[in-house]
Amino acid sequence: MRSNASPFAWWKLLAFVLLMYAATMGLLGNVPHIAILNETIRNLYFHVPMWFAMTLFLLVASIYSIVYLNKGNLKHDRIIVEFTRTGMFFGVLGLLTGMMWAKFTWGTFWTKDPKLNAAAIAMLIYTAYMILRDAIADEDKKARITAVYNIFAFPAFMALIYIMPRLTDSLHPGNGGNPGFNAYDRDREMNMIFYSAIIGFMLLGTWITTLRIRLRLLADKKDGLIVDSKKYASEDLLDA
Prior knowledge:
Elements (H helix, E strand, L loop, with lengths): L9 H19 L18 H25 L2 H32 L8 H22 L3 H25 L24 H36 L5 H5 L7
């Protein structure tokens, strides 16, 4: 028997607390004074965690793509598209915060840096995924084709973001022979803020996604795409 407790789960409160802590300490806490970076190093608490969150959400979408092809449950397709949307949302935020960082450290919003260009290509790959969905009318056909696309899109994304930039010269820390931030001797306080931001953004994105999945399933139910309403009413995602 399901509990009638409030759907506001503990992890949602944790997301709020972690992000408030990360935002407050990220802007007001002590940071090392490093040449060129100076105060812009605070962007480490926002730009990098957003990309970590994006990677998690796109990974979840890729896993559910495999699940959908195995089970053919339309609900899984809705999970795929909403986690992909959230991943793209955090990806765009990551690009914008990265451009701001580049402006104050490299003197321009965009350069020919391999990682910047790879990030843009990765976002275009997932933009093509959304365009492909809109181009197919049949729901089952749309779900199958885009699930296959998503399975291949994620390895391409990982290669573009995390592998290829390390094989060539890049201005980004940790790439092309440039030292990573771990070489800058992050102190305990910085690590606490940094990892709090990562967990906080991941939880926030999960919260947003479960709400969107709930709305999408309710819309499917209204449109008659979901026949067994009792089955979906028992899903935890509807209580997000």
